[in-house]
């Protein structure tokens, strides 16, 4: 399949190009502002699909809005019509097409031209954010991510200003689905839109970005269970200098081995790892609210827990030949013993963050003599 991508070196174009390269049997014809138009003319008979992403949004002369948006669109459409080629042409417009400014009017002109083409697909895009977007250009998200990540000042005129945002991968997913023959997922009056869209206030975005900045030097990770936060965090990290892509964790060591907290979340507990020498016993305590999951990723271990109510005891023998996840219930005192000949590495997830002022940890030995079930 031969796919023409205009605006191939732009923000959306780059993201689309690299996704297209992951597909089998797709040949990409790239067209950008410095590409001679005859590259389209020479390939016209072979083109199967067009992503018309090229456009002008920051011209030196207002006339460039119309030449780069409407006139180029007209030239492409005429070429296909003259050659009796009615392949799908997808054009990216803007929500500003309904506004009375030169950029919006030039985008509306391009839409009107496309409406006369039988196989047109018109997308009005809201504010797009993600990696590879040029800062200090058209995207406040890119500018703020870049400046905050690089210790530069930002300017906020109105923290309560609400933005309506779409994420680049949601756009690319939609575009690839169209290439595969599917219909637009959200169409209104012959105009297509991307979903999901995120309505967020500028002040909220800035607060999140500074939270992300702080997390880069700690073991905390943002609340990425929230779809918008997940995508904004990925965007922010793409602007962080590579020499800031690491942080340190505290490794606590003693005669038994070591224990290290690796990741702390704001709402889903924490993840840690312990290393135990052969014969070392860890635990012999219980919790009332805190629960844990144990995963032995190296070595051999016996995990035992006993009900503090009726002394029912259970043993689990686990090793690294088949990864098992053992959930430690509340109200059971428990321990884990390294029964191998080498060190045992234990990954631990806990449903809450460790708080030394309120550890919810009560020491009590497990009942090793009355194990009723061996799993």
The oligomeric state is single chain
Global shape: elongated
Q: How many structural domains can be distinguished in the coordinates?
A: 2
Give the helix level as a range of percent. 25-40%
CATH class of the largest domain: Alpha Beta
Low-confidence stretches: none
What's the total number of strands?
Answer: 23
- State which percent range the strand residues make up: 25-35%
Explained architecture:
The chain has 8 helices and 23 strands. The protein folds into 2 domains: 207 residues, NAD(P)-binding Rossmann-like Domain (Rossmann fold, 3-Layer(aba) Sandwich), CATH 3.40.50.720; 124 residues, Jelly Rolls. Strand 8 and strand 9 form a beta hairpin.
Topology summary:
Elements: E1 2-6, H1 11-20, E2 27-31, H2 38-43, E3 49-52, H3 63-82, E4 89-94, H4 102-115, E5 120-125, E6 127-129, H5 140-149, E7 162-167, H6 168-179, E8 187-188, E9 191-192, E10 198-201, H7 202-215, E11 220-221, H8 227-237, E12 251-254, E13 257-265, E14 270-276, E15 281-286, E16 292-298, E17 300-307, E18 313-319, E19 325-328, E20 332-338, E21 344-350, E22 362-363, E23 371-374
Parallel strand pairs: 1-2, 1-3, 3-4, 4-5, 6-7, 11-13, 18-23
Antiparallel strand pairs: 7-10, 8-9, 12-13, 13-14, 14-21, 15-20, 15-22, 16-19, 16-21, 17-18, 17-20
């Amino acid at each position: 399949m031969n796919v023409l991508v205009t605006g191939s070196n732009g923000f959306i174009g780059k993201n689309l190009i690299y996704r297209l390269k992951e597909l089998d049997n797709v040949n990409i014809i790239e067209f950008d502002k410095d590409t001679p138009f005859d590259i389209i003319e020479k390939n016209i008979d072979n083109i199967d699909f067009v992503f018309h992403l090229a456009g002008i949004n920051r011209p030196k002369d207002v006339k460039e809005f119309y030449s780069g948006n409407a006139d180029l669109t007209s030239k492409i459409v005429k070429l296909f019509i003259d050659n009796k080629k009615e392949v799908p042409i997808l054009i990216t417009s803007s929500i500003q097409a309904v506004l009375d400014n030169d950029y919006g009017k030039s985008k509306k002109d391009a839409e009107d031209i496309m409406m006369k083409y039988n196989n047109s697909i018109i997308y009005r895009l809201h504010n797009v954010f993600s990696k590879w977007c040029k800062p200090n250009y058209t995207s406040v998200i890119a500018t703020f991510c870049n400046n905050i990540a690089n210790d530069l000042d930002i300017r906020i005129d109105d923290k309560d200003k609400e933005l309506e945002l779409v994420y680049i991968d949601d756009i690319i997913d939609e575009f690839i689905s169209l290439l595969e023959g599917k219909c637009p997922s959200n169409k209104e009056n012959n105009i297509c839109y991307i979903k999901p869209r995120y309505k967020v206030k500028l002040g909220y975005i800035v607060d999140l970005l500074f939270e992300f900045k702080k997390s880069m030097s700690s073991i905390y990770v943002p609340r990425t269970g929230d779809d918008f936060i997940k995508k904004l965090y990925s965007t922010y990290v793409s602007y962080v200098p590579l020499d800031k892509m690491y942080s340190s964790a505290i490794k606590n060591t003693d005669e038994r081995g070591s224990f290290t907290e690796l990741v702390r979340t704001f709402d889903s507990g924490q993840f840690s790892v312990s290393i135990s020498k052969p014969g070392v016993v860890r635990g012999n305590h219980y919790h009332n609210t805190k629960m844990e999951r144990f995963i032995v990723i190296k070595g051999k271990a016996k995990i035992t827990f006993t009900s503090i109510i009726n002394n029912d005891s259970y043993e689990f023998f686990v090793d690294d030949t088949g990864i098992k996840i053992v959930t430690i219930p509340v109200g059971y005192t428990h321990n884990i013993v390294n029964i191998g000949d080498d060190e045992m590495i234990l990954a631990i997830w806990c449903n809450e963050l460790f708080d030394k002022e309120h550890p919810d940890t009560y020491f009590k030995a497990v009942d090793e003599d009355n194990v009723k079930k061996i799993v």
